[in-house]
Design a protein that fits this description.
Maltoporin, Chain A, 2 domains, 22-stranded antiparallel β-barrel, five-stranded mixed β-sheet, 51 strands
Length: 793
């Protein structure tokens, strides 16, 4: 009986195998790359499908696509907003490669109706909580001092806010700024701003695309708990030499693109340099005559396609800020990144991207009394340096099983070196060096997810990520005694570890799932769940992160952050794609966020872990978004209603308290109206609830002095006044010649001169020391005009 059952099972498996083989023989794959006809740039998110059906796919981040169809003749259509639809007929008798060059349309003012497969629409994607912007959209926005800025653009999206002008970083769905993974061509960037937050480090002339992921994270991404900002650089024009640039009243920029070998390889080099210090030099005298205030950056990328299956990309970034008062106070900080990527097509269905990268962030702070030293006074100086360096390796694969199934899988490894700080002080020739021990860590992961679309209405993407983290030597591990929560911990012992010796390891499984159900071609609902972990932390006890804040890894005393996020949303695309709407709700909890005891000492403190506290976080809210892409008036409006709270043992009476960057309401309105082909006007209005702050609610009089204190011991018990601002920008294009194109951009930032409060502090009245008065500190309190001339040759 057992033998018959085994024989029957074998026959069944043989029949299924035969059917599968027959089916495979009748299906073939068409694949290739899609690029811009004019400059050879790879096009991301292009929709490819069989005309008259819902069978289709989209290009990946490198412009590669793969579509499996039955044997026979098919009309295949390529379509995307801003490009003329492209159709081709192919007779599939074998696997076929078709590379396509699409031509950009001269105008997007009129609606172009496309029959059959349409461009990738928000309502059709499986991913939720993802916003995509391209550089053309960003260029339409009102600018600060006439300059296009990536970070200012994303701050107009739902779920994104900042604590105000002069803030280095941004906050997403209740997360701190260090909880955002910022990638430039897959290399992490640790400080994303120039000039203390007023400009981003990303040169708009070198940026091709931008994806902001706030929830429903694909398994490929890890290491942060709030968001992923994935920025891709241009490949460079592989057809002609092109110059792009701009001259403004803050800085100037220039980029050069050219082919290395036409149709096979190209490069781009883009640079910027500010000159505020040069402009103000004639007006600054005395001790301030040598004041330094500038930034510069250089972005470069080259690529070469060896054959239809192999392409190499090399890119890098170097930028620095310099800030100093005369010769006595000098600060500088900056990022450096380098990325090498190899694309390889094993078969028409299997695509590999192998990435290796280097990233460094460093800063220094110097003080001296050399220029002000009087005869007989001793020399005094102080020099503090710190940096973080990491090396990464990431092979990632995409396997296109068929038009309904695809697999994404790979492994990742990152080696970190943290140099928390070295301080050198000089006092009358006596040199004293204080160095915090370097720290080392290895982060690795393996991931896989499956994207399955069994029907036009339903789709699901599910998978997981297995993350491992090792805190290793050479270094010290500190052992502390348990104390009353909120009190500095007492040191018990210090243990030394040798090179690469394991001090503490952490291991996590991070499940990810997203699902979509479409009621029709225009309406869909999506849900998502993701768990994310973060193994590094930025230490800052100020209201806003600064370039001089410290990065530290998870240790035997600092546990990794773990976040669980649930998201659900409704999405709508108009039939002609003229506009889209979305409404999302989210709920996120985070364990092991870093908090601080009162009066924590974070600077050059070898026992800094004694001042840190583990905290719980929770955030929840509603995000509304409406966007219009077609017509003379375009733009978007976003509104976020949210709550962000923390709970820390020993702090705020052990109760939930508002996070320091909580904003209950956050409204952004971005509009652009095109009057003619050469004239357009843009406006941006933002309104946001004030951020919370901790203020005294009582006072104690002692010997004629007024001493304020917080009787409730609650953190963030008050809120700053609401923030709102209007910006305007006008673009006047010159005569667009065949080789030379130019435009003037005139901008007004903070049109009605609102003095938004960055913070409020209290000081004693000069006339009556027994009285205290509140003082509003505003970073920007007046109208700021800007003018820039942009050109392209």
């Amino acid at each position: 009986m057992k033998t018959k059952a085994t024989l029957l099972l074998s026959l069944l498996l043989l029949m299924l195998a035969g059917q599968t083989t027959t089916a495979q023989q009748q299906r073939y794959t068409v694949s290739g790359y899609v690029k811009d006809k004019q400059n050879g740039e790879s096009l991301v998110g292009i929709s490819i499908g069989k005309s008259g059906t819902t069978i289709g796919t989209v290009t990946n981040q490198y412009g590669f696509y793969s579509l499996t169809l039955p044997a026979g003749e098919h009309e295949i259509q390529f379509s995307y907003m801003g490009y003329a639809p492209y159709k081709t007929t192919v007779k599939l008798t074998k696997n076929t490669t078709i590379d396509v060059r699409m031509e950009a349309t001269s105008s997007q003012l009129n609606v172009v109706t496309v029959n059959g497969q349409k461009q990738e629409r928000t309502v059709n994607t499986l991913n939720t909580s993802i916003n995509k912007l391209d550089i053309q959209q960003m260029k339409k926005m009102p600018t600060f001092m006439g300059e296009v800025d990536v970070l200012r653009a994303i701050q107009t999206l739902p779920g994104v806010n900042t604590v105000g002008e002069g803030s280095s970083g941004f906050n997403v769905r209740g997360g701190n700024s260090d909880e955002n993974l910022i990638l430039l061509d897959e290399a992490p960037v640790y400080n994303s701003t120039h000039m203390l937050g007023f400009f981003s480090v990303f040169n708009p002339d070198a940026v091709k695309s931008l994806n902001l992921i706030k929830g429903g994270f694909p398994a490929e991404y890890g290491g942060r708990t709030s968001s992923v900002l994935d920025i891709r650089m241009k490949d460079g024009n592989n057809q002609n030499l092109t110059l792009n640039g701009g001259i403004g009243n803050i800085f100037s920029r220039l980029s050069v693109e050219a082919p290395i070998v036409k149709d096979k390889g190209s490069f781009i080099v883009a640079g910027r340099r500010s000159y505020i210090d040069l402009l103000m030099k004639p007006f600054v005298k005395g001790d301030m005559k040598d004041t330094k205030l500038n930034f510069y950056d250089l972005t470069a990328k080259a690529n070469y396609k060896f054959d239809k299956n192999n392409a190499l990309f090399v890119s890098g970034y170097f930028g620095r800020d310099v800030f100093g008062f005369g010769k006595d106070v000098n600060m500088n900080w900056g990022n450096s990144t380098a990325t090498v990527r190899w694309n390889h097509v094993f078969t028409n269905r299997l695509f590999l991207n192998l990435t290796t990268y280097y990233s460094k962030y460093d800063y220094s702070l110097k003080f001296t009394n050399d220029s002000k030293k009087k005869p007989g006074e001793v020399e005094q100086a102080y020099d503090w340096t710190s940096n973080i360096i990491n090396y990464g390796l990431k092979p990632s694969f995409t396997y296109y099983i068929n038009s309904s199934n695809s697999l994404h899988f790979g492994v990742q490894g990152i080696y970190y070196t943290f140099k928390p700080g070295t301080g050198t002080s000089v006092n009358d020739g006596d040199v004293h060096v204080k160095k915090i021990t370097d720290q080392h860590a290895l982060e690795s992961a393996v991931y896989i997810d499956h994207e399955y679309k069994p029907s036009k209405k339903f789709g699901i993407q599910y998978g997981g990520r297995l993350s491992a983290y090792q805190f290793v030597g050479t270094g010290n591990a500190y052992m502390y005694a348990d104390t009353t929560p909120g009190i500095r911990k007492r040191l018990l012992d210090i243990k030394q570890y040798g090179s690469n010796e394991l001090i503490k390891g952490y291991y996590y499984f991070e499940p990810r799932i997203s699902a979509r159900y479409a009621f029709s071609d225009e309406h869909a609902v999506k849900v998502a769940y993701s768990r994310t972990t973060q193994f590094m932390h930025q230490l800052s006890n100020t209201a806003s992160p600064t370039p001089l804040d410290i990065w530290t890894p998870s240790t035997n005393n600092i546990k990794p952050m773990v976040a669980d996020q649930y998201t659900a949303g409704y999405f709508y695309n108009a039939p002609n794609d003229a506009y889209e709407l979305s409404a999302e709700v989210f709920y996120k909890t985070t364990d092991n966020q870093v908090d601080y005891i009162d009066n924590a000492n974070l600077q050059l403190n070898p026992l800094i872990e004694a001042d840190l506290l583990p905290s719980q976080g929770r955030a929840y809210g509603l995000e509304l978004y409406a966007k219009k892409d077609i017509g003379k008036t375009t733009g978007w409006v976003s509104y976020t209603l949210s709550r962000t709270e923390r709970k820390t043992p020993g702090i705020s009476m052990n109760e939930w308290f508002l996070n320091r960057y909580d904003r209950t309401h956050n409204l952004n309105l971005v509009l652009t109206h095109t009057f003619t082909k050469r004239t357009s006007l843009s406006a941006n209005w933002v309104f946001a609830s004030g951020t919370p702050g901790t203020f005294a609610d009582n006072r104690l009089e002692f010997q004629g002095w007024d001493i304020p204190y917080n009787s409730t011991e609650k953190r963030n018990n008050y809120r700053l006044p609401a923030y709102h601002r209007l910006d305007l920008s006008m673009t006047l294009k010159g005569k667009q010649l065949k080789r030379w194109k130019g435009e003037w951009v005139f901008s007004l930032y903070n049109v009605y001169g609102r003095r938004n409060a960055y913070t409020i502090y209290f000081k004693q009245n000069e006339d009556d020391p027994t009285k205290r008065e509140a003082t509003r500190l505003s970073i920007i309190g007046s109208i700021i005009p800007g003018i820039t001339y942009n050109f392209k040759f």
